[in-house]
Amino acid sequence: MIWVGSFKSLRSALRKPRFGAPLEVHTWLRSDIGLISPFVDWLMSLVARTGCVPGKEESVELALREAVSNAILHGNRMDPRKLVHVRCCCEGTKGVFIVVRDQGHGFDPNSVPNPLAVENLGAEHGRGIHLMKLAVDEVSFERGGTEVHIRKKSENEQKTPAQRTVRSGRCRCAARCALPAEHRNVVCAEQTAEI
Question: Which residues contact 131 (CB under 8 A, 6 or more apart)?
Answer without folding.
Answer: 62, 63, 66
